[in-house]
Amino acid sequence: GAVVSQHPSWVICKSGTSVKIECRSLDFQATTMFWYRQFPKQSLMLMATSNEGSKATYEQGVEKDKFLINHASLTLSTLTVTSAHPEDSSFYICSGEIRVNTDTQYFGPGTRLTVL
Amino acid sequence: DAKTTQPPSMDCAEGRAANLPCNHSTISGNEYVYWYRQIHSQGPQYIIHGLKNNETNEMASLIITEDRKSSTLILPHATLRDTAVYYCIVKGYNFNKFYFGSGTKLNVKP
């Protein structure tokens, strides 16, 4: 149980275009989902917290107008990288939270974004 | 949230137990210890978590010291597939964000 999927698994786009990444919890409902970014040989960095039906909360230094997050249902959150640039190339990972006794996050497989 | 300190890397022979330490000396009473691992180019995988008692599941055992200032993740019989970066995270019950440190790169060798 506790499976999270992401689509696409990898994407290559041109500079200036927008890219949407989907995150789905397949066998549980996630009131809260999280988005992380990971650069090569670095640890995961939390970008934002997404609550179903409300605006996302962004970590300090993350541009909310560049990284648009929508959490329209209890099983789907999307991250749109707007006007992507080469420096946005990274590994983007989402997670869904299960709140039973304690809060445990289950992570998706990640999406590799390459901006040319 | 309390910060954690882990060795950057460790080696383990295949079939032997892997003991991964984590120091969290500033942990507070309501903070849990979580362990995740990340195999190259994949999302992190949940392993185990605990508050103060030792915990065991099908993947690993978590040993938390009595003063809760440190813990050890034990993989009883490491295999090559256990080669990964292991992250120890401390998080309060009513605080739902995970902040990842640099983790420990476990190299399981034949």
Please give a structural write-up:
The complex is a heterodimer of chains A (116) and B (110). Chain A has no helices and eleven strands. With 116 residues, chain A is an all-beta fold. In chain A, 34% of the residues are buried. The model of chain A has no long low-confidence stretch (mean pLDDT 93). Chain B is mostly beta strands. Chain B contains no helices and nine strands. Chain B starts with 8 loop residues before the first strand and ends with a strand. The A-B interface holds A 2, 4, 6, 32, 34, 36, 43-46, 49, 91, 93, 95, 97, 99, 102-110, 112 and B 32, 34, 36, 38, 41-46, 49, 51, 87, 91, 93, 96-103.
| Overall residue-averaged pLDDT value of chain A | 93
Instruction: Report how far the terminal alpha carbons of chain B are from each other.
Output: 38 Å
Instruction: Give the number of DSSP strands of chain B.
Output: 9
- How is the largest sheet of chain B built, in terms of strand order? 1-9-8-3-4
Helix percent of chain B reads under 10%
Distance between the amino and carboxyl termini of chain A: 37 Å
- Discrete helix count of chain B: 0
How do the helices and strands follow one another from N- to C-terminus of chain B? EEEEEEEEE
- Large-scale geometry of chain A: globular
What is the succession of H and E elements of chain A? EEEEEEEEEEE
Summarize the largest interface: chains and residue counts: A-B, 26 and 23 residues
Outline type of chain B: globular
Count every helix of chain A, treating DSSP H or I runs of 4 or more residues as helices: 0
Q: C-alpha Rg of chain A, in Å?
A: 13 Å
Quick synopsis:
The complex is a heterodimer of chains A (116) and B (110). With 116 residues, chain A is mainly beta.
Walk me through the topology.
The complex is a heterodimer of chains A (116) and B (110).
Chain A: E1 4-7, E2 10-13, E3 19-25, E4 32-38, E5 45-51, E6 57-58, E7 67-73, E8 76-81, E9 90-100, E10 102-107, E11 111-115
Parallel strand pairs in A: 2-11
Antiparallel strand pairs in A: 1-3, 3-8, 4-5, 4-9, 5-6, 7-8, 9-10, 9-11
Chain B: E1 9-13, E2 18-23, E3 31-38, E4 45-50, E5 55-56, E6 61-64, E7 70-75, E8 84-92, E9 104-109
Parallel strand pairs in B: 1-9
Antiparallel strand pairs in B: 2-7, 3-4, 3-8, 5-6, 6-7, 8-9
